[in-house]
Every structure is written in structure tokens, then in C-alpha cells.
Amino acid sequence: MDSTHLIAAMAAAVPDARLHAGTATDQPTIYVDREQLLAVARALHDADGLRFHVLADMIGVDLLPRQPRFEVVYHLVAPSTPARMRLKVRVPGDDPRVPSVTGIWADANWLEREVWDLMGIVFDGHGDLRRLLTPDDWEGHPLRKDYPVQIRLTPRATEPLQVTEEEFRANLAHDRQARDRSRS
Q1: Which residues contact 38 (CB under 8 A, 6 or more apart)?
Q2: Contact 58, 112 (CB under 8 A)
Q3: CA-to-CA distance for 30 and 39, rounded, in angstroms?
Q4: In whole angstroms, how far apart are CA 33 and each of 27, 36, 76, 172, 179?
Q5: What are 128-175's pLDDT values in tens digits?
Q6: Helix or strand or coil: residue 39?
Q7: CA–CA separation, 112 vs 3, rounded Å?
Q8: Tally of helices (H runs) and strands (E runs) in the chain
Q9: Residue 105 near residue 52, CB atoms below 8 Å
Q10: CA 126 to CA 112: how far, in whole Å?
């Protein structure tokens, strides 16, 4: 099943959807407007002949300086066919919001949190949108292309560890003490 066939199948399920074929060569890719994401995702999940029941992965892409700045990419699998496809949503940089698909694919919960944490794209309707990979007090979203990189030490190519031998030994001793306390 290629992008053209998927778009034709979606036209019957979601008649007002504005779908566009992507240029990927490895699997069918379809672009959908974010306002129509939930209707299209529900049809991909439920429509006869489609049944994309598995959300295999979801990522955010920062295309800075291009506009719209972001894309959210959903990798879907229909196990019964078997078929794979990619669904993409373009997201403007001045309003990085997309509806949550956790009501369609439950595993989107973790993936949406990851994309929000690292890219700053908000998923409207997500029940627990909070930091996942960065500490709670982290400022900003580190995978954005305009995120300020801060390096406190000059990189040393010949020294893989940037701690002194004394610091390394102290860290080991502290770790051993913590493990000993947790066992008792």
C-alpha cells in the first residue's frame, strides 16, 4: 500500500481531511493538518482495510530555520496486513501544539512526554505532560536547534574522563556506601 492508496482510503473515512503524500521512499508517508490529526488517526486505527493498531514510534523534528518549524512524526504498523506507514504533522514554531493521540494509541503517553520534554511541543489533552528525561527544574528543551549549549570544560580528546583520579575514587567510595546502606 503506497501513499496514494492510503490517501484514497482515508478520503472515504475522513472526507474533509487535507492529506498530502510525502516523498519518503522507504514507506508510505502522509502529511495531515494538525486540526485534523485526531480524525485521521482514529480512521487509520479503526477503518476496515487500514487497522494501524500499533504506534511503533513518535518523534519530534526541529527544522529551524524552515517554517513551519517543527514536525511530529508517527510511525504506524498494521499487524494484520502487515503494513507500515509514517504520518506527519507540521507544527508552527510560534504555536507548538498538537492534539494528544493517547486516546487512540495508549503508548503515545510516554512518547508525547518525551517529545514535549526534549522539543517543547505541547500535546493538548495529554493527562500527564511532565518532564521525562530531564530533571524537573530543567529550563528549556535541549533538542531544539536554538537551545543554548553550555560547555563548562574544555573538551580533552586524550582524556575520556573529565574528573581527576581523586574525584573518581571519591565517587566510587560514595557509590559503594550508598549501595551498602540500601542492602541493610
Answers
A1: 99, 101, 103, 104
A2: yes
A3: 14
A4: 20, 5, 17, 52, 51
A5: 999 999 888 888 899 999 888 765 655 555 555 567 788 888 888 888
A6: helix
A7: 25
A8: 4, 7
A9: no
A10: 8
Tens of pLDDT, residues 77-104: 999 888 999 999 999 999 999 999 999 9
**pTM of the model as a whole:** 0.79
Round to whole Å and give the CA distance between 51 and 150.
Answer: 45
**CA pair distance 117, 129, nearest whole angstrom:** 9
Q: What are the residues facing 172 on neighbouring strands?
A: none
- Distance, in Å, from the CA atom of 94 to the CA atom of 156, rounded to the nearest integer, reads 38
Name residue 85's beta-bridge partners.
76
CB atoms within 10 A of CB 130: 9
Distance CA 104, CA 23 (A): 26
Please, what are the domains in the chain? Answer: 3-143 (3.30.460.80)
CA distance readout (Å), 113 to 54, 60, 122: 18, 11, 9
Distance (Å, rounded) from C-alpha 90 to C-alpha 98? 9
CB-based contact 104:45 (threshold 8 Å): yes
H or E element at residue 166: helix 165-183
